[in-house]
Amino acid sequence: AAAERAIALDADEPSAHLALGRLFMLAGQHEMALEEMRTVVRANPNHARGYYGLGWVYWYGLADSATALEHYETALRLSPRDPMRFITLMVKGSALRTAGRLNEAIEVGRESCRNQNAGYLPRMHFAITLAKADRIEEARALLQEVRELEPGLCLASVRAARQGMHPDMLADTVDGLATIGLPETA
Q1: CB-count exposure of residue 83 (10 Å: 0-12, 13-18, 19+)
Q2: Rounded to a whole number, what is the largest CA-CA distance in the chain?
Q3: Distance of CA 60 to the CA centre of its chain
Q4: By the 8 A CB rule, do 43 and 36 touch?
Q5: CA distances (Å), 66 to each of 14, 94, 101, in order?
Q6: Residue 185: helix, strand or coil by DSSP?
Q7: What is the pTM of this model?
Q8: Which of 70, 136, 159, 180 is the most buried (most CB within 10 A)?
Q9: Contact yes or no for 177/127 (Cβ under 8 A)
Q10: Rounded CA Rg of the chain
Q11: Residue 33: what pLDDT?
Q12: How many CB atoms lie under 10 A from the CB of residue 58?
């Protein structure tokens, strides 16, 4: 409601469209999310978060890793000092993983974890990448770090937190975590 109100007040406000697009993604309304993210970059072609949002819709919602990667690259180029860069790197690494480009995914995943504010999510995504690359022991060690940062993490909570995620991307995420020993329940 707040995003829709902001758009009603100023239809060209990119941040309002970005917020609405994220909400549509989480609700599984991928085409509506895609249109909101396109509106962001039409309103401001230099809006790095808008390109991140487009990439997120393509990867998370539509399982189109190749198109997602194009948008992530644009976001990273537009905002090389973005304090949230680690998030864009995290999802770029995941898109590289699901595109089968594991060596690149490992490099990007490692970079995403270097940020002091990275928290557990980049490490979790990187652990999945390591698992997919058959680097199981490294992945398990990283999963231990993840579980220290997020003690209640389990496969059920991962599924519950990924509303609107494309079934293929969700399966990739859950399967990777199951491979390295994340339990079904906390």
Answers
A1: exposed
A2: 53
A3: 7
A4: no
A5: 24, 11, 11
A6: coil
A7: 0.94
A8: 180
A9: yes
A10: 16
A11: 97
A12: 24
49: which 2 tokens? 């978060």
- Alpha-carbon distance of 3 to 129, in angstroms, equals 34
Tracing tokens 């997120």 back to the chain, one arrives at: 56
Which residue has better confidence, 116 or 130?
A: 130
Amino acid letter, residue 53:
G
- How distant, in Å, are the alpha carbons of 43, 50, 62, 79, 135 from that of 39? 6, 9, 18, 19, 41
**Torsion sign, CA atoms 46, 48, 53, 55:** positive
Amino acid at 152: G
DSSP string, 147-176: HHHSTT--HHHHHHH-TT--HHHHHHHHHH
Q: Indicate whether 174 pLDDT > 90.
A: yes
Q: Are 169 and 68 in contact (CB under 8 A)?
A: no
Q: Structure tokens of 91?
A: 């999802």
Q: Are 18 and 54 in contact (CB under 8 A)?
A: no
What single-letter DSSP state applies at residue 29? -
Which positions ≥6 away from 66 have C-beta within 8 Å? 99
